[in-house]
TrEMBL record:
Signal peptide per UniProt: 1-22
Regions annotated as coiled coil: none
Superkingdom of source: Bacteria
Residue ranges constituting the ABC transporter substrate-binding protein PnrA-like domain according to the UniProt record: 27-302
Cellular component GO terms, alphabetical: plasma membrane
Keyword Signal: yes
Protein name: Nucleoside-binding protein
Keyword terms: Signal
Length: 356
């Protein structure tokens, strides 16, 4: 009898503890700037959303709205998710920043996480990744694989995020090939395969034999594949679009971060912060190499990746010069996070201008 009572008591204790551990149910909403089928930025975020849904207190209780234009109009869409019961909202592009702050101000009981922005509030945090780390590594690959010393870069918008990536890539290129130049063409788009393809072709027309890109579609990869050039991808492993041309790609792994944030909100431990994780935390990394990348090049990259993770090397350590030859980071010094987040100049080795 006493054994039965003890058993029932233990069952009750485990049930209560289990309920407490589970925390409150999370209903998450995501705002995407492109379609989930873009194979790039939005695709990577949606893979992270699906990983988060494996949590028992989220299950399949999340939703997304794709291809939402940036700017003031996005506030209506964000507010629509809140009205439908979302208590955790992810807005996944820089241009949603002000709209996120505006909606959050009127919905204090909802947690908002904005990707790549810098504005916070009591119920708004920001998150991003140190993509410049694998960008630098991919630059090493490009610098070693080019034969013409002309590398093309198809760039989206002239904001610090994109400029920082171009500079990190170029620093990686020039660390192994000081004679190489990186030519930049701007598209003023995140996702427009036609415009991106035209930009990529224009770079190939002027002699680029390796392409890189900061875009959401695989159009740059397809251009390289069609014309016998090499290409560095972005966002996700896009090698299926260019099996011969693809060398590697800086890629995102949002799932672990989304899972961690959902747990914090569920258990009530979430606090507004500005997250900027890197390779050490597993948010960003370099995709597997094409076998065409020589073993000695892979070894150089692996050693540098280990140094980045260990904190013994930083891609933006001096000496660094800008396009005019002026020293912007002296030897022995490193750009601060503030400098990186507000970056508005090109480093030596970049051919192109930054539109105002």
């Amino acid at each position: 009898m006493r054994k039965t009572a003890l058993f029932l008591m233990l069952v009750l204790v485990f049930a209560v503890c289990g309920t407490a551990f589970a925390g409150k149910e999370i209903k998450a909403g995501f705002i995407y700037v492109g379609p989930v089928g873009d194979a790039g930025w939005t695709y990577a975020h949606d893979q992270g959303r699906q990983e988060m849904e494996k949590l028992p207190f989220v299950k399949e209780n999340s939703t997304y709205i794709e291809s939402v234009p940036e700017g003031a109009e996005s506030a209506r869409v964000i507010n629509g998710l809140v009205r439908k019961g979302a208590n955790l909202v992810f807005t996944t592009s820089f241009g949603y920043m002000d709209a996120t702050i505006d909606v959050a101000r009127r919905n204090k009981d909802v947690v908002f996480m904005h990707c790549s922005g810098f504005k916070t509030a009591e119920n708004v945090g920001t998150y991003f990744g140190r993509m410049y780390e694998p960008r630098y590594l991919s630059g090493i690959v490009a610098g070693k694989m080019t034969k013409k010393n002309v590398i093309g870069y198809v760039a989206a918008f002239p904001i610090p995020e994109v400029i920082r990536g171009i500079n990190a890539f170029t620093l990686g290129v020039r660390s192994v090939n000081p004679a190489a130049e990186v030519k930049v063409v701007w598209t003023q788009t995140w996702f427009d395969p036609g415009i991106e393809r035209d930009a990529a072709d224009s770079l190939l027309d002027v002699g680029a034999d390796v392409l890189a890109m900061h875009q959401d579609a695989p159009a740059t990869l397809q251009a390289a594949e069609a014309r016998g050039a090499y290409v560095i991808g972005y966002n996700s492993d896009m090698r299926e679009f260019a099996p011969n041309a693809f060398l590697t790609a800086p890629v995102w792994h949002w799932g672990a971060l989304y899972t961690k944030l959902a747990k914090q909100v569920s258990e009530g431990s979430w606090k507004s912060s500005q997250i900027w994780d890197g390779m050490k935390e597993g948010l960003v990394e370099l995709a597997d190499f094409n076998p065409k990348v020589p073993a000695e090049v892979q070894k150089i990259v692996a050693d540098k990746a280990a140094a980045i993770k260990a904190g013994t090397f930083h891609p933006f350590s001096g000496p660094i010069k800008d396009q005019s030859g002026h020293v912007v980071v002296e030897a022995g010094k490193t750009h601060s996070d503030g400098d990186l987040l507000g970056m508005s100049y090109f480093v030596e080795g970049v051919q192109g201008t930054i539109p105002k």
